[in-house]
Amino acid sequence: MNQRALKALLYWVIWMTVTIVGYAQLYQGTDVVEFMKEDNSRITWLIVSVFVFGVILSLLLVLALTFEWAQAYDVEDSVDKRGLEGLDTNRLRRMLGRYLRNLKYSLSINASPDPEQLLNVEIGSYRRVNHFIEVLGNLLITLGLIGTVVGLTLTLTGLTGSLKALGNDQELLIASLRDSMAGMGTAFYTTLLGAALGGVILRVFALICEHSIDGLHDTIMRLCIVYFGADLKPSSERDIHALEAELERLRKNVIGLDEAFAGSANSLAQFRSEVQLLRQPAGEEESTDSLHQAVKMQDYYCYLLKEEIEMLNTLNNPWRIRWRHLFRRWRGPTRR
Fold first, then answer.
1. pTM value > 0.70
2. Where do the domains of the chain lie?
3. Exposure string (b/e) for 57-68, b if CB count within 10 Å is 16 or more?
4. What pLDDT is attached to residue 335?
5. Which of 5, 96, 152, 157 is an S-S bond match for 70, by CB 3.0 to 4.6 Å?
């Protein structure tokens, strides 16, 4: 694989490493994990689950784009003067393979396709996935704000209970103050997690994927303009490319026919040797002549089968045998 294709994946890994190290230092003394275990609202669990889903989706998108980049660089390195007609698109897969095959089909039916519009259609799936990752980042920020409101609501509820229990029930006062502090923790932690995980990490992942998609778009368009430009408009050079491609396919077919004829010749030679073995006399090294032995055994089996049929006819229809003997006796004197 071309090392230039690993650029987006390298950026993704670097940013993931930086965020893990940075936020590990940031949350070192905050006991986020302990708070998530005791969070009754479960909003923090929802934020972390959406974040993990977005990270996995972003990683899959980066891997797909890396594969597309590798194919684009391979096409750029292997393309020759024959242009699009001489390019083997069957070995290409995913978006780039579909794009080049559709482009070749449009040219084969004498159509005038718009390569940029067709590329936008083919690459649109990657853009939609990247847009969904951006939406997940915004969703995390929104969930953080919702968690803030829920936490403040729990805080106010706890303060109300503590005011009612003030001077009356000491245990209820302590429990209400504990609930109010838990509500404040929910408000602060959900805001921090939503803003950090969604507003920073996922958005940067989406930015990396967006730049990779735009760069891939520009690279494929450069291929179309520089190497496939003569094939995209009717011209004598386009006809020459088509003729060269047909000659190349014809050459491959001729090579295939030669190989097939060579295989047929070997089969005929083997069949001829088998026939010659059948023509050998019975007394000539019968121990090594397996095919001749098989023919002799077949004749012997036929003879035994014939005798068995005669015996069954005799047992099943004895009058027939008697009439046959009488008929033979009657014809015997007339012949003499």
1. no
2. 3-234
3. bbeebbebbbbb
4. 42
5. 5
